[in-house]
């Protein structure tokens, strides 16, 4: 078990080292290509701009990917409730306060609702 973990860590370290080497080589190549036209300061600024744009592009890609939501019929009841709470936070806060008062007065209702929400759905035929 420990041997497998150490092997995975060594592989991750090797991938990281290769990635860092590739990034540094790309930065040096970009600098060498632009230093004649823009001078040392301009070439350094272009390399810095490129270094800032790559993570920005990755972040935008993952942000767009994260916003893709499954169709409504594929979402569970809990996911739909959280989505509704995000869209209407004041109404969600009021509903939470009402549910809290109801739960304090009758804990059996809270138990029943939680059991219903946490119950797994049977798989849908495809």
Architecture overview:
This protein is an all-alpha fold and 126 residues long. The chain folds into 2 domains: 1-68, no CATH class; 72-118, no CATH class. The chain is 84% helix and 0% strand. It is elongated.
Strand content: under 5%
**Helix proportion:** over 70%
Q: What is the alpha-carbon Rg in Å?
A: 26 Å
Averaged pLDDT = 81
How many individual β-strands?
Answer: 0
Molecular shape? elongated
Order of helices and strands: HHHH
The helix tally amounts to 4
Number of domains: 2
Give short descriptive properties of this protein.
126 residues; 4 helices; 2 domains; single chain; mainly alpha
Question: Short summary of the structure?
Answer:
The chain is mainly α.
Q: What is the strand and helix layout of this fold?
A:
Blueprint lengths: L1 H66 L9 H11 L1 H17 L1 H12 L8
Helix pairs in contact: 2-3, 3-4
